[in-house]
Amino acid sequence: MSFESKVVLVTGASSGLGRATADLLAKRGHRVYGTARRPAAGGDPGWTMLPLDVCSDASVAACVAALRAREGRIDGLVNNAGHAFVGAVEETSLEEAKAQLETNFFGALRMMLAVLPVMRAQNTGRIVNVSSLAGAAPFPFLGVYGASKHALEAISESLDYELIGTAIRVTILQPDGMRTSIGFHHPGTDHPILAAKRRQLLTRLEEGAHTSGNDPLIFAEEVARAIESDAPSLRTAIGDMAKGLIEARRTLPEAAFRRNVAERAQLLPSSGGA
Description:
It is built from eight helices and nine strands. It has helices at about 15-25, 55-70, 95-120, 145-160, 195-210, 215-230, 240-250, 255-265, and strands at about 5-10, 30-35, 50, 75-80, 85, 125-130, 165-175, 185, 235-240. The chain is of the alpha/beta class. It is about 45% helix and about 15% strand. α1 (about 15-25) links the parallel β1 (about 5-10) and β2.
């Protein structure tokens, strides 16, 4: 385990998981740069905020160039910027689906493509991609969000293979409900049968994001572990529900697992157990 100071770029750091991560990494002695589309004036204690829109090629290039000009290297990238589209598949327009993937998948890919030449030249680096429980176990009304995270997981694993022979590693984090200010986006059209059930799930998701979810510090600690480890894990589930459901998907028969998820989403009468 190596704890020397590293230059780390954390996207989506204006609040929530990104801010908690930037704060913790700075406290641990790393040189941290957070990003936001419109950074607030006044800065942040212990770390620097840079402007970044992960959906813009020019913005990504400018952000990475600015960081290289300041530090001369990039040791870590935390791809945290994103939002969650909550909608049934039949409520989702192609434009809404494209917007979800543009941020969660293509935004993360833009960042990886921008920092990888720097890390290749250094022959060292850590890329931490923020997936979700939905990236491992699809959930009702989170189909497009889950698709964006499935895509991110697939490209992350492929990239990690392709980096064999270097000291660059990729880590995928799979958190469940966290107390964070993630933005929930909604369909422009309600399905006459499914909208009410979707709203029930959204209420629970919003409650978790604001009050009942896991402490963002738990997430930040896993990011720090991935950044600092000499041999980080490819995947790490964060939170009891994520760990339990991912293990259930691996071990339960398909029908039993699907019933488990359907009951959690209140699509079936509860059997009295998880």
